[in-house]
Amino acid sequence: MKTSLKFLAVLLLVSNVSFGQDIPQRIDSLIKDNYKKNPNVGISVGFIKNNEEYYTAYGNLNIESQIKIDKNSLFEIASITKILTSNLIAQAVVEHKIKTDDYIDGFLPKAFVLHENLKNKIKISDLASHQSGLPDIDFAKLIELNPQQPVNNVTIEMLTAIINNCTDLKDYGKYRYSTIGYTLLGQILEKVYGKSYDEIIREKMIKPLKMSNTLTKDFNVKNRTTAHNPEGGIQEFFKWNITAPAGLVKSNASDMVTYLKAVLNEKTAVGKAAIITEKIYYKDKNRELGLGLNIGTDENNTLYLKSGDSMGQSSIICYNRIKNWGIILLLDQRNSKMRQELLNQICDTILK
Predict the structure, then answer these.
(1) Total domain count, the chain
(2) Alpha-carbon dihedral sign for residues 159, 161, 164, 165
(3) pTM of the full predicted structure?
C-alpha cells in the first residue's frame, strides 16, 4: 500500500510538471496559428506562472525591416496605463496620503474650481472606477482635428474649462468609460507628491522594478514597433501630454511581465497597492470594476484585466492571483476584436 501511494504521488507530480511545461507550448501554438491567418498583425506575448516567465512573438518591427518582434519590442500599451495610474493612487493610499473615499475637492490643483453642485460629491474611487459623472473629452472631435495626434489638442486650459463649467453630474454612480477621470487622477497624484506624473511613475514603479524599457516622454528607440490603424495604414505613436495617466505609457512584454510579477507578490509596494485596486468599487449586471481593473468571476476563477487601444495598436493584460499567473498581449495594429478573442481562447482552453 505504501509503495502504491508513493507511486501515485510521483505520478501526480510528473503530471503537474508536464502540464505546467505544456502551457507555454500551447500558448505559442495558438499565437502562431493566429499569425499565420493574420500575417500583417505583429504580436508579442508575455506569460508568467508561479514566477516562471515565458515569451513568444511573431512579425517584424515594420514592413521594411527584417528585425523580428520579440519580448523587448516597444508597443503603445494605451489604456493599460490606467492600471499603472490606479496602482500609484493605491500606493498613495498605503502611504496614508489619500483615501479611496476622499472627495477630490481638496486634491485638485487650484485652477480647478468645482461648481457648488459638485462639491463633496466625487470620490477618488469614482474617478478610478469610471462613475464620476463628469463630462469627458470629445475624442471623435479631436480625431477630426488631428487623426495622427488627437490628444495633442488637450491642454490644461481645456481640462480646467471642462471641469469648471460642469454644473451637474447627470449619470453619477453609473458606469461610463472616462479618459478625463484618469487625467484628473494624474493631477491628484501631482498635487499629493509635488512632482510631475512622469517623475512619480519613474520613481515609484519604473525604477524600483527596473522596467528600463517602459518609456514616457522619449520613446524614439530602435526596437519600436510600427503602429497600424484597422485599415493597415501607419499610425504615429501618441506623444506625451497632460492625458498621459490615461493612456500614454509605452512598454514591452518583458517589462509588463515584470509588472505582473510585482502585482502577484504582495510583499512589494506594487503588490500591496494592487490588493487595494482589486476591491470591487462598481458593480452592475454587466460588469464589476476595481480601480482601473475589470473583474471577471466564475465558480473557479477571478480574473483581473485591462485592455488598451491607441489609434494604431491594441493590448490586453490579465492575471489570476489565486492561480498565480498573468499574461500580456501586444498587437501592432488597432484590433480590439483579435486581442480579446486571443485572450478568451487562452483563458478558456489553456489556463482554466
Answers:
(1) 1
(2) negative
(3) 0.93
